[in-house]
Amino acid sequence: MKASAIPELDRMMELADGRTLAWSEWGDLGGRPVVLLSGTPGSRLCCPDVDATEAAGVRLITIDRPGYGRSDPRPGLTTLSWVDDYVELVDHLALPPCPVVGWSGGGAYALASGYRLPGRVTSVGLAATPGPMTGPPGFLDDFSPEGRANIELFRRDRAAGIEAIARRRETFRGEVWQGFSAGVFPEADAPLLARSDVQETMRTYLNESARQGPVGWVDDDIAEATGDGFSIAEIQPEVHIWIGGVDDWVPRSHADHMVEMIPRTTLVSFPSGGHLFPFEHWAEMLAALR
User: Fold this and answer.
1) How far apart are CA 156 and CA 61, in angstroms?
2) How far apart are CA 247 and CA 275, in angstroms?
3) What share of residues in the chain are helix, strand, coil (percent, to 5)?
4) How far is CA 225 from the centre of its chain?
5) Residues of the chain with pLDDT under 70
């Protein structure tokens, strides 16, 4: 069991509109592909468990979303518009239909991929993923007061909301790991964060996400506040939902709502897991994907 920020391959390509997209590959490069989308903020430089990836015969592909790492920003980013970038990468790599896993904030983009590309996404994985902003009444109550206030402001006055989100993220530069490691993660993640491989991976992963400053995080927050633009009830591929039983960041109610709404779902809870449980349970997660 070993996390890593050092991929087997690290590549960039030019998209049709001239922007750059960056991705990395891990594990068995001739194996069955699985795509992993990072959290918010995040970057391509994270494999939760290299040993498990190789043992499963998986070719793991991780992607920098616009504004993170070495991928150029995409003006007006939404979860659905990001799928256009994903399609270009899939075509470039000539990937067969495969699973797409989203960790935390990456889950919204995984769901958008499953919604738009049911013939190219065999299953969707959601790890520690918040539910959509269009959840039932009271759904926003589970967010932090600051986060809830920003979303409500955005809905009343989009320009003011964007300014508030940008102001909140403007210090996101340089050794960002120091800020994240200082008591930010759920207490349940402390044993994982004590592992040297997880520490080094998280440090590299987060610092790479800030390569261009806060633009990626700001655009992710705006896309989240804007909403997905589709109903999760219309997603056709099977969806696997994994949650940490003691994850302070993503309440159980979010997973329960998605299970109720999405036609074909399985839900697995890791009772002692916090927000970073994929570092410990990656082998089980890969085994569930088809």
Assistant:
1) 38
2) 5
3) 45, 20, 40
4) 16
5) 134-144, 146-148, 150-151, 154, 161-162, 165-183
pTM above 0.85, yes or no: yes
Check: CB of residue 239 under 8 Å from CB of residue 264.
yes
- pLDDT, tens only, 186-226: 889 999 999 999 999 999 999 999 898 888 988 998 888 77
Which domains are assigned to the chain?
9-288 (3.40.50.1820)
C-alpha of 113 from chain center: 12
The CA distance from 116 to 106, in Å, is: 16
pLDDT of res. 176: 61
Q: What is the pLDDT of residue 51?
A: 98
Dist. CA 267–CA 125, nearest whole Å:
10
**Dihedral through CA 268, CA 271, CA 277, CA 283, nearest 10?**
-50
CA distance 4 to 201: 5
Q: How far apart are CA 277 and CA 249, in angstroms?
A: 13
Beta sheet of 9-14, edge-to-edge order: 9-14, 20-27, 58-63, 32-37, 98-103, 121-127, 238-244, 265-270
Predicted pLDDT of residue 168: 65
Q: Which two tokens stand for residue 110?
A: 């995984």
Give 133's contacts (C-beta < 8 A, 6+ positions apart): 139, 140, 151, 224, 225, 227, 228
First to last CA, the chain: 22
Which pLDDT value is given to residue 139? 62
Structure tokens at 24: 């990395």
Task: Please report the pLDDT score of residue 227 as a whole number.
Answer: 77
